[in-house]
Amino acid sequence: MRRVLLCCNLFWILFALITCIEAYRLKLGAVTKPGSGFFPFSAGLVMLVLALVALMQLTRQEKKEGESAGREEVRWWNIMIILAAVGAYAFTLETIGFLINTFLFVTLLLKVIEPQSWKASLLGGVIAAVAANVLFNVIFKAQIPSGILGF
Amino acid sequence: MEILNQLLFGFSVALQPMNLIYCFFGVLVGTLIGVLPGVGPAAALSLLLPVTFHVPPVSTIILLAGITYGAMYGGSTTSILVNIPGEAASVVTCLDGYQMARNGRAGPALGIAAFASFIAGTITVFILVFLAPTLANAALKFGPPEYFALMVLGLSIMVYLARGSIINALIIVCFGLILGTIGLDPMVGVPRFVYRINTLMDGVGLVQVVIGLFGVSEVLINVERTFKQEIFKTKVKGLLPNRQDWRQSIGPIGRGSMLGFFLGIIPGMSVVIPTFVSYVIEKKLSKHPEKFGSGAIEGVAGPEAANNAASTGTLVPMLSLGIPTGASTALLLGALMIHGIRPGPLLIQDAPEIFWGVVASLYVGNIMLLVLNLPLIGLWVKILKIPYHFLFSLILLLCIVGSYITNNNPYDVIIMVTFGLVGYLMKKFDYEAAPLVLALVLGPMMETALRRSLVISDGGFAIFFTRPISASFLIVALLVLLSPLVLKKKRLREDLRAAE
Question: Mind telling me how many Å the CA of B398 is from chain A's nearest CA?
Fold first, then answer.
């Protein structure tokens, strides 16, 4: 955990440094007339100082023993699959369309994350797709793309 | 007398059939959202915000406000019956509400929760009627330095109350402020941190960030481990509390209402903290503090009144100053701005139908919730029995649709899922998401106020300390941030948790 927190603080330091550099490029202006980069530069600078303080505090702390004991196994695959599925849904929505995409998305999640039978997964996918289409496209008239099938 | 006339005018707006339907729909969806774990009122507002683009502004705000206080009711039902707080403001209700259910007193617990919410809603609507116009008049004296200082105070309170270390919370606030600068510079129109990505030209969407941080991240946290669902079977009978229950509850309801409302006004306080404070106070005032945690009705009545009162209180700075106190009010503010209405001191004069219509609808909505919710308790419990592996895929689907239909842009979904991952990691590493959202909301307003103040003062930072209102806000903010050092790092939140 300590190593992870160190990485977190290093990430914030890097993020703050990049923000300051990019904000400086936007021009800071003068105090009488602050430019576009003034506010993000200030926020980045404060963040940099805070992240350095947090890093110093962490390095001073003694490493605790037995940190990893008793940890429950994390199912990283589930998280990866969900992130990939949502990304794929977004990129294919306009070509494949809302109805089919929703059916595929829900069926996949039901089959893979907490595996259900094919019958339950497919039925869940169909119900979710039809209900979502009626709710958003018919009732709310949200105009979500119908895609290749045209409905 | 004039206020009474204005209030009657508000009722004439709120009681129009179309507005009644929107109010009903809002409180119904709000209750449903309150019941479902993982989808808070902010995510629900995000989902419905794009749907309201074609709805008149008064109806929009009535619908969305209905969701926020409807969620308070829904959250309490599941807290009492199944020990699952549908949303954060109902966590405290689990402590004694669930124990009352286990002792066979689920009916009175649900009944007092509903009545406490209703009474708090009624009391606070009348305080709002008198306070908001007064505050709006006072706010006419506010210039950019006062607004900047008030927002600094709001963020400081949020940081103080955040989980984990204050330094981490401050880092998250800076992160939110930096994210808020993405897009066109509000003063000179220069694109910032856009990197030729057109989607970022209007900034990082609040809707996508909120859905990602609160909706998607909750799903990710739940699916990383095998989800165990336990539902305690109980029969709900006799919803009306008896005379003894009322005698024990009336004091906590009154105190919870006042406490919730006035704490809710403070930016950054949210509706969660007042419930904890109310619980602690009731426990301290009780002649039988040992009964708290084993089914004391005061432990349900006080916090339930407080969370409903706080959700009304949060509307005061939003409507009278144009300053949101958290994610939900930021989305309400966003909804008004989409319709070309600028909340602030002039709202009551310029758009009285909005202000008084919303105020009256709060009361109408509370009556609807009281009548609607008690008979529907069975339905809400059945919804909770839906296995989580079905529920999470539906929640994810709603998150995708909600973030997509804001602009009909697939890249918004990518932003949403990115913030879902960010929210997940923040939860894992003990960073709180609420300061990030508040900073993202207040960031652009703070920047404009800061830059205008510096232009007015010809570059002198002293302007923030020479004007009494601004100086007072900044001094209080400083005291709030430094208090953990002075008070041996003992923080209110920790005290509250210990008391819990």
Answer: 9
DSSP three-state, residue B286: coil
Inform me whether the C-beta atom of residue B452 falls under 8 Å from chain A C-beta atoms.
no
Instruction: Pull the structure tokens for residue B173.
Output: 């606030």
| Residue closest to B472 by CA, chosen among B460, B484, B483, B464 | B464
The whole-angstrom separation of Cα B87 and Cα B490 is 26
pLDDT in tens, chain B (500 residues): 677 888 888 899 989 999 999 999 888 888 888 777 666 777 778 777 777 777 888 888 888 888 887 887 777 887 788 777 766 777 888 888 888 888 888 888 888 888 898 899 888 888 888 888 887 878 778 889 998 998 898 888 888 877 778 899 999 999 999 999 999 998 888 899 998 888 899 889 888 888 888 888 888 988 887 666 555 566 666 678 888 889 999 999 999 999 999 888 877 677 778 888 898 888 888 888 888 888 889 999 999 999 888 888 888 888 888 888 777 888 888 788 778 787 777 888 788 888 888 888 888 888 888 887 777 877 777 777 777 778 888 888 988 988 888 788 899 999 999 999 999 999 888 888 888 988 888 888 899 999 999 999 988 889 999 999 999 999 999 998 888 776 655 555 555 555 44
Q: Can you tell me the distance from the alpha carbon of B386 to that of A26, in angstroms, rounded to the nearest whole number? A: 52
Are B46 and B401 spatial neighbours (Cβ–Cβ below 8 Å)? no
**Residue A126 Cα, gap to closest chain B Cα (Å):** 12
Nearest-CB residue to A39 (from B216, B413, B447): B447
ipTM of the assembly?
A: 0.91
Candidates A26, A39, A92, A116: best to mutate against B (most CBs of B within 10 A) is A39
B residues 81-110 near A, CB within 8 Å? none
